[in-house]
Amino acid sequence: MSTIPITKKVKRMKGVRPGETVRVLISEARLQARLKELAKAIRRDFPTEPLHLIGVLKGSVFFLTDLARELGGEVSFDFLSVSSYGQGTDSTGEVKLIKDLDVSIEGKTVIVVEDILDTGLTLKYLLRFFEEKKPKHLRVVVLLDKEERRIADVHADYVGFAIPNEFVVGYGLDFDERYRNFPDVCALEFATKNKSKST
Fold it and tell me: Count of alpha carbons within 13 Å of 18, Cβ hemisphere only?
């Protein structure tokens, strides 16, 4: 796991609204290099087994896609969607299932692919949900870990980067459905405290 230092590098990008700034925490190049390392670690544990990746929508889409390419071998995937955010940038703590899995995971080697692990409440919910479906193996890979925010006693088996307690966007992560398409992981900062809905 890599620890990310706090940086002051503000990146000027198209699509940033007035009153909001983005500061690069993890560059696209660092993301891709770390993805290769994560894929190797997963394949060391499961060198020949078919892997079934489950992405947590919508934030994990880019991460899952790039990771699947690096894993090689037999890989399938599915997606589900949960929500734990209300108004603003803080989790409500209440997790709701919005989209269920399309196929059974019973007897499969399942890798849950999450964009970010912070309070752990969503992951705790998901682990219970998946364990009831009787996979052969169940592992979790997260791109970003905000360990200082942890409430639930959960951890990921594979972690990309430990990050400070900042609201992050880019590489699939959003604020009000914006910024997902940015290639870097960035800290989002506001000039005012008026924040709209975040997912």
Answer: 0
- pLDDT attached to residue 3: 61
Q: Which two structure tokens, joined as six digits, stand for 4?
A: 């990310």
Q: What does the pLDDT read at residue 95?
A: 86
Which listed residue (118, 145, 174, 184) is catalytic?
118
Query: What are the residue ranges in the chain where pLDDT is below 50?
Result: 6, 87, 194-199
Hunting for tokens 């890979």 — which residue is that?
Answer: 141
For residue 17, what pLDDT is reported?
Answer: 81
Percentage helix, strand, coil for the chain under 3-state DSSP, each rounded to 5: 20, 35, 40
Whole-angstrom distance, CA of residue 176 vs CA of residue 58 = 12
What is the spatial order of strands in the sheet that 185-190 belongs to?
20-26, 185-190, 168-169
Distances (CA, A) of 166 to 101, 116, 160: 30, 12, 16
Condensed to tens digits (0 to 9), the pLDDT of residues 49-80 reads 999 999 999 999 999 999 999 999 999 999 99
In the chain, the domains with their CATH numbers are 28-165 (3.40.50.2020)
118 is catalytic: yes
